[in-house]
Design a protein that fits this description.
Elements (H helix, E strand, L loop, with lengths): L6 E2 L2 H14 L7 H8 L7 H15 L4 E2 H12 L4 H19 L13 H20 L3 E2 L6 E4 L3 H5 L6 H16 L3 E7 L8 E7 L5
Antiparallel strand pairs: 1-2, 3-4, 4-6, 5-6
Helix pairs in contact: 1-3, 1-4, 1-5, 5-6, 5-8, 6-8
The structure holds zinc ion.
Zinc ion binds next to loops.
Length: 210
Amino acid sequence: MTPSVATVHSLIPLSLLEAIRNLDTPLDDGLNELANETVSKRLGLSATVGQQIERYRDDALRKLPVSLDEAVSVFRLVGRRPDATLVYSDAGRRAARHAAQAAGIGTKVLLGVTPRPFRRRFGARTASQVARRLLALDLDVSRGAPRVRLGESLATLAGFPGTGCYFYSAVFAELLRVASGFEGAMVHERCHAKGDDHCFWRAAEAGGYE
Ligand SMILES: [Zn+2]
């Protein structure tokens, strides 16, 4: 994310609110009736969040961005929760899938048809294009394992570096998975939260990237 870009794709706040709702939805474990009173107080199940999700969904379809300030405030909503890392990870995966779907990839990827090394390289480039076009994020796939360097991010702007970085780890891993069949994780090697002047991720696949 470049600081000069003052808008964010609606699919990012959409994904964050969907993740909040998802994590606040009780499992159907037979205890729901007992828990009803507590459940109704959960933010993710409120009418307000439901309406916002619909609004962002419409905006995302119409390619209407939201302001950076608004995206930061939604991002901050998650950071205060005790289950923030779970919500950010869930939101990141959702954002990647929304972006892939909006870009028309996912269903037409030739998984299992093209040779694996080709699929990896071709898919990683596709993931990079989607990240740049829809998420304004720079996924570098020019050499070796895909990598990402972020000076500023929604996580730092919201005041939750480290915790908020789970969102980005999940976005990139899921984008690579959908586009190239990647099975692994984005290792967060450097982070603002650890005193580094930027955040840095490198894709690590089980068994090595090549
Ligand atoms: Zn970080």
